[in-house]
Amino acid sequence: MNSLPFSNRLDFALAETDGLPADCPARGAPPGFCPKLDLLSMVNALTEGILVCGADRRVTYANPSAARLLGLPVEELVGRLLPTVVTAAVDEFEASIHETDWPDQDVIAQGEPQLNQIFGMHCVDGRTVWVSSNWTPLYANGGQSMTAAPKAPDSGATPYSVLVSLVDITQIREAQQRIRHLATHDTLTGLLNRSALEDRLEHALALARRNRSRVSVMFLDLDRFKNVNDTLGHQFGDMLLREVAARLQACAREADTVARLGGDEFVVMLEALDGLGTRRVAERILSAISAPFHIEGQELYLGVSIGIAVAPHDGDDPNTLLRKADAAMYLAKERGRNNFQSFTSDLDDRVSRRFRIESGLRRASDRNEFYADYQPRVDVKSGRIVSVEALIRWNSADFGHMMPGQFIQDAEETGLIVEIDRWILRAACDQLARWRRIGLPHLRMSINLSGQAFSSGQLSTMVRGALSTSGLPGEALDELDATLKKYGKGGVWAANFAIGGGVGYYNKRTAATASFSARVGKMSSFSAGVGFGLNSGEVGARAGFQHAW
């Protein structure tokens, strides 16, 4: 019989003959104003699940909400041993709870309630329901009814039963898990993010110290991934990144960690793997990423540069290992990309130097440390100077006079290259204006700009600003010759174009493998489309400008 183990009517110690407490404000009210409550009906109407089990752990009562929650009819719940109302239970950390560890036995033994207990209930119908539960002892009161109380009515009382209330918090739990997942995972690829990686790495290093084992950190950077975003768009790039993430996970063991730091940078952490095993994983990754990607009908090829640092040899904390693996990755890029390199002690000096170069570049313009050299180009027939090429130089306070190959790659990788482009464009236009004023009206100026100047969307503003501040007229931009060149060991591609009028200089030999078109209008932005096959040496392009100033 499914009935409460006490009277269905509320008992009040001070109740009068009408069943109402002496201090009840309803006393003296018209009949029917505050009827006696039928406790069983009230409990059956509750939205929270209610179970009562005796000292023998058998369920003696279950309300309809408990039946709905647990996926069993009331008649099947009553009489069951409490732990068997579900197939299994886990705590809030998803660790299994043995049937002897359910709270009811402690509540009976100690006579104290256990409140706000979080459980995951694996129900017999296959669902997993998360509940917040309260477990309250029921005490006999004069051998008649029973009351729920936070402590025993007297020191000698022993609970007869336990009242269990269950509140469904499944949706809340799922929302919390989604929030936790967003806080620890990359939203694009589903991999761990930097914060979670650092926590995982900290834990792995602690285990390695205890077990005297190794932890290897691989820092990965996709080669020329920016070209994909620039030519096919960021949505296409995102799809490619998701495919890269899937391939990286397939290359790692189940115990390894794969994370995305942002952009096209990934990290793979390998625990308890020797040097040979680490190299084999790196080789698998190189092979996997080198295989063609097929996305929306496009076949793409990528490479990946990998830097490796190993604890405890190269460091014993997450930041040091990541920094040194990053330094080794740049060495891989310098050595031709699409390879892996391990950290060595001499790389510390390179990392320090690169940091100082980056810091110096950020202050170079304000300190007036940039200057331009002008290299003349001569018509071999007439012997006349027909153009000059503006070449940026950096007189660094820390490193002295530096050629572009010594700092352009760092500027490109830190995003400072566009400001350098802006500076050389302005300086070249100012110098060309001065030469025109002293009687050289037909001299042309050739300027080296980075590929980012074209892809950043800022070139129109840069060109107009340089022409405006120098006083050059719009027709000074009769035509533009663009040449893509490599600078430095890292292979930074830059564009070279000419400003001026009169004598036309154009290197046809280098114009075969690229097409380029551009327009500048008074109210329109500078738009450029560049398509090229990156062969060795130089590739060229030509563009015509129409004047709308």
In short:
With 549 residues, the protein is an alpha+beta fold.
Cα gyration radius (Å)? 38 Å
- Summarize the main sheet: 7 strands, antiparallel
Total individual domains: 3
Arithmetic mean pLDDT: 79
CATH architectural group of the largest domain? Alpha-Beta Barrel
DSSP strand tally: 23
Extract low-pLDDT stretches. Answer: 7-21, 31-36, 478-496, 500-549
Our count of helices gives: 15
Q: The CATH topology of the largest domain, please?
A: TIM Barrel
Residues in β-strands, percent: 25-35%
For this structure, what is the CATH homologous superfamily of the largest domain? EAL domain
Descriptive notes:
There is one protein chain. With 549 residues, the protein is an alpha+beta fold. The protein folds into three domains: 39-174, 2-Layer Sandwich (Beta-Lactamase); 185-344, Reverse transcriptase/Diguanylate cyclase domain (Alpha-Beta Plaits), CATH 3.30.70.270; 357-544, Alpha-Beta Barrel (TIM Barrel), CATH 3.20.20. The chain has 15 helices and 23 strands. It has helices spanning 39-45, 64-70, 74-77, 103-110, 170-184, 194-211, 225-232, 234-251, 275-290, 318-334, 347-364, 408-414, 417-437, 451-455, 459-470; strands at 49-54, 59-62, 88-90, 114-122, 128-141, 145-148, 161-168, 215-223, 257-262, 265-271, 293-295, 298-300, 303-311, 340-342, 370-378, 385-396, 400-402, 444-450, 479-487, 492-499, 514-519, 527-532, 539-544. Strands 1, 2, 3, 4, 5, 6 and 7 form a seven-stranded antiparallel beta sheet that branches. Strands 15, 16, 17, 18, 19, 20 and 23 form a seven-stranded mixed beta sheet that branches. A five-stranded mixed beta sheet has the order 9-10-8-13-14, sandwiched between helices. A hairpin with a 4-residue loop joins strand 1 and strand 2. Helix 7 packs antiparallel against helix 8 (234-251) and helix 10 (318-334) crosses helix 11 (347-364). The protein starts with 38 loop residues before the first helix and ends in a 5-residue tail after the last strand. Residues 7-21, 31-36, 478-496 and 500-549 have low confidence and may be disordered.
